[in-house]
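Request from the bench team (R.T.):
"We need a structural guess for the complex before ordering more pyridoxal-5'-phosphate. Sequence and SMILES attached. Just send the tokens back."

Command: build protein-pyridoxal-5'-phosphate structure.
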Amino acid sequence: MIPLAEPNLDGNESKLLQNCISSGYVSSSGPYIKEFEKKLSLSTGGKYTVSTSSGTSALHLALKSCGIGYGDIVIIPAYSFVATANSVSMSGASPWFIDIESKSWTLDCNLVDEQLRCETNWKGDHIYHNKTGQKIACIMPVNTLGIVCNIDAVEQIANKYNLKVIIDGAASIGAEYNNNQIAKNISGLITFSFNGNKIITTGGGGAVIGNDKSLMGLIREKSGTGKVYNGSYNHDVIGYNHRMTNVEAAIGCAQLDRVDEFIYNKRRILETYNQAITDVPGLSSIPCPKWSISSAWMSGVQVNRRVHPNIDKIIQYLNLNNIEAKLFWQNLSTQKPYKKYLHSKTNVTEKISREFIALPCSTNLEKNKQEWIIKKIYEACKLAV
Ligand SMILES: Cc1ncc(COP(=O)(O)O)c(C=O)c1O
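Reply to R.T.: structure attached below.
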């Protein structure tokens, strides 16, 4: 099977891992952690970086450090990986699922505004949901597949309704917003994942990045055990031990040395698919809104079900030819654990959930293999009509 996205570990990973073992720094302290965080700040433009054990723990840490918990509501897009919703549940808050917009596949901020105007009321400094009485505490957009959400629109809503902003940027390392590095001008926080299928990996890992010194100081404390100072057993805040290890950071350092090459390859692969399908009836590309230069984490095609009602046959044909291809994320508001939570209408999410097929896009995917995949897509579309 040609996989969707496998890690590329042909650089200095083994050498740096060996250094961890010979030095004994295999746990939550060690030189690679600092180095990885420094490199991440440079790569994303964010002033402060705290590395974590996963993208989910980064989101959880960000939420708790912003004071979000039981009784609160966090607005998230209905189209995302389930970890976005899970992190909200882990914090004790409840998700409110809002649709994405078709021009960007990211959170529809006009719809957020409309829902907040119609379904909430001010009490003191905050808005509360009319029916549930819960406080709307945070807006958490997602950089879908590497496409950057409309950060200006998100921040406007946040200012208007006094909400915290946490961007789930899991797969958006290298992406740009209005020609700036992704974390350069953000007022809130952004998180990343370095799981094995991401653009760079640390095995499992993540990070929280932000520009507010004191908030990021708190995040650092809470990422450990909330110690007053290292070495003491006095604690002034609750900590979650969501830290990255030196072993993971070592892999991350080797990966970050090649991040430009990885992003270049990801964009080239996506562009090759996009070009190849321009004239194929019923197929269209992942959108590219004017404010975003995507990291192009995931490649794939949208298959119009009116033209190709047998989309499953397209997938089956690709799979039979040893090409991993599948319907990607599904509408979170219809998933079993999340059916009971608030949601807007989710028409766009529903359509993309049913029509977007992810395709192989590993950073080391060879040109001839991609050409072969494209040939099989053409054949599959003909067979499935
Ligand atoms: C949008 C999104 N959010 C959060 C995560 C969670 O990251 P992790 O798997 O590192 O916990 C992922 C991981 O795939 C993701 O795609």
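Two things stood out. The domain at 259-384 is CATH 3.90.1150.10 (Aspartate Aminotransferase, domain 1). DSSP finds twelve helices and 17 strands in the chain.
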